[in-house]
Design goal:
By secondary structure, the chain is an alpha/beta fold. It has helices at about 10-15, 25-35, 35-45, 50-60, 70-95, 105-115, 135-145, 160-165, 205-210, 225-235, 250-255, 260-270, 275-290, 295-300, 305-320, 330-340, 345-350, 355-360, 370-385; strands spanning about 100-105, 125-130, 150, 170-175, 180-185, 210, 220. It is about 55% helix and about 5% strand. Strands 3-4-5-2-1-7-6 form a 7-stranded mixed beta sheet, with helices on both faces. The longest helix is centred in the N-terminal third of the chain and has 29 residues, at about 70-95.
Length: about 400
C-alpha cells in the first residue's frame, strides 16, 4: 500500500494517536508549533481523537504552554472510562457467578487489559462476547440488574429473538453515578451484515483460547484472535465510517503490546477467507500510524495490486478523516463492500446464503418461505445502515 496523502494537521494527528511509548516527540513538537494550537485542537475534536492527542501532547510539549482545554479533554474521557471499566468488572463478576465467561472486545478489552491510559481510550459503548449457548442466560442476568434491551438503530427490532438471529443485543443502562451506558452483548465477534458467520472465528473457540486479566473476571481474546477481530471490525466500518480514524488505534495497541504469533495469525486469516479485509486494516495502521506490521505478513495476505489501488483511492476520495461525514451513496457503499470479499463466490454467498443457512438463521423449515426470507434479508442489508 502506498503512503496516504495527508495534510500537516492530519500527519500530526497520526503521530499523536500512536501508542504513547513510541511517539516521535520531535516531529510532534515541530508540527504543533508550526500549525498552532487552535488548528490542532479543532482537527482533533472533529476527528474524535482530542483526548488521545491531549495525552500525546502532554508527553511531548512543555506543560506550561499547553492550553488547559487539552487536560479537560483527557480528564473527561478518563472519568467516563473509569465508570465504564467499573461496570465491565461488575458485569463480568455477575456472569462468572453463573460460570459464564465474558470476553471484552475491541477498545473495551484493550482498555481493560492492555492500555491503562483511560483518557486515551475514547469509546461510545462497551462490547463483550459470550458463548452462544449462554447468550440467553447472560441476557436474563443483565435484565435482572437493570439493563434494558434497546437497539440504537431504528430499523432493529427490540427483541431477544432478533438479537439471537443477528449475533447480539444492545442494552441501555444508567450507572450508579448517573452516567448512561450502551452495552453490547454479542455471541458473534463481528456480526457485520456483509460478513458471514463462517468467516468469523467461532465464539466458543474464542472463549476456549481466551486469556485472563489479573484481578478481574473479564477475559481477553488471545493476541491472534484479538488482532483478527479488530481488523474485521475496522473493515466492518469500511475503515473510515464513525468512529472512523481512531479505529486504527485498535490494531496499533494490540500489535504494540502483545506477542503475536504471526504464522498462526496468517493461517487463521487465510482459513476464514478474509485476506482483503484484514490486509487493508493492517496496511492502513502501518501506513497511517507506523504500526510495526511485518512486511512478510502483509505479502502473504495481500490481494491483487489493482484491487488495493482502487480501494485506497476510493478511501482517499471519501475521506479517511471526519468520521461523521457521509462517505458513500448506497450503491457506492455496496460496491465498495463487495471488494472486501476475497472471491466473487464469497460475495455471492454473502448476499444469497444457502437454503440451510437461511433456515437456521430465520428458524423456518418450509422451502416455500425461502423467497420471503431472502427478500427480508436483502431489504435489511440495504436499509439498516444508519450512516454511509
Amino acid at each position: 500500500m502506498k503512503a496516504f496523502k495527508l495534510t500537516k494537521v492530519e500527519s500530526l494527528l497520526c503521530l499523536c494517536i500512536r501508542h504513547c511509548d513510541f511517539l516521535e516527540k520531535g516531529k510532534i513538537v515541530s508540527l504543533y508549533k508550526e500549525l498552532g494550537d487552535e488548528a490542532v485542537y479543532a482537527s482533533a475534536k472533529l476527528n474524535g481523537v482530542a483526548s488521545i492527542t491531549a495525552h500525546a501532547l502532554s508527553l511531548c510539549v512543555d506543560s506550561s504552554v499547553l492550553p488547559k482545554h487539552w487536560l479537560d479533554e483527557y480528564n473527561a474521557i478518563e472519568e467516563k472510562l473509569a465508570d465504564y471499566m467499573a461496570e465491565l468488572d461488575k458485569v463480568a463478576s455477575l456472569l462468572a457467578q453463573h460460570d459464564i465467561a465474558l470476553l471484552a472486545l475491541k477498545n473495551s478489552g484493550i482498555t481493560k487489559g492492555m492500555y491503562p491510559y483511560l483518557g486515551s481510550c475514547p469509546m461510545g459503548d462497551i462490547d463483550v462476547l459470550v458463548s452462544k449457548k449462554q447468550f440467553r442466560q447472560a441476557h436474563e442476568i443483565l435484565v435482572a440488574h437493570g439493563y434494558t434491551l434497546k437497539f440504537r438503530c431504528d430499523f432493529e427490532e427490540d427483541s431477544l429473538e432478533a438479537a439471537e438471529h443477528g449475533g447480539g443485543a444492545e442494552y441501555s443502562v444508567e450507572l450508579e453515578g448517573g452516567r448512561h451506558l450502551w452495552f453490547e452483548l454479542q455471541w458473534r465477534p463481528v456480526a457485520g451484515r456483509w460478513i458471514q458467520p463462517e468467516q468469523e472465528p467461532k465464539a466458543d473457540e474464542l472463549v476456549a483460547r481466551s486469556i485472563s486479566i489479573e484481578g478481574s473476571d473479564v477475559r481477553l481474546l488471545s493476541p491472534e484472535d484479538n488482532l483478527l477481530q479488530v481488523a474485521l471490525h475496522t473493515a466492518k466500518h469500511t475503515f473510515v465510517r464513525a468512529p472512523g480514524f481512531r479505529l486504527h488505534t485498535d490494531v496499533d495497541r494490540i500489535v504494540s503490546t502483545q506477542n503475536i504469533d504471526w504464522v498462526l495469525f496468517t493461517k487463521r486469516v487465510i482459513a476464514l477467507r478474509t485476506k482483503t479485509a484484514v490486509y487493508m486494516s493492517l496496511a492502513m495502521a502501518k501506513s497511517l500510524l507506523g504500526t510495526p506490521i511485518p512486511d512478510d505478513v502483509l505479502n502473504k495476505i495481500k490481494p491483487n495490486a489493482l484491487k488495493i489501488t482502487i480501494m485506497q483511492a476510493w478511501l482517499e476520495k471519501v475521506g479517511i478523516f471526519e468520521p461523521d461525514a457521509t462517505k458513500w451513496s448506497k450503491p457506492g457503499y455496496i460496491v465498495f463492500v463487495s471488494m472486501l470479499y476475497d472471491t466473487f463466490s464469497d460475495f455471492y454467498a454473502g448476499i444469497f446464503p444457502s437454503s440451510e443457512k437461511m433456515k437456521e438463521q430465520y428458524e423456518f423449515s418450509s422451502n416455500a418461505l425461502l423467497p420471503y426470507y431472502h427478500v427480508k434479508r436483502i431489504a435489511g442489508l440495504l436499509l439498516t445502515r444508519a450512516n454511509i
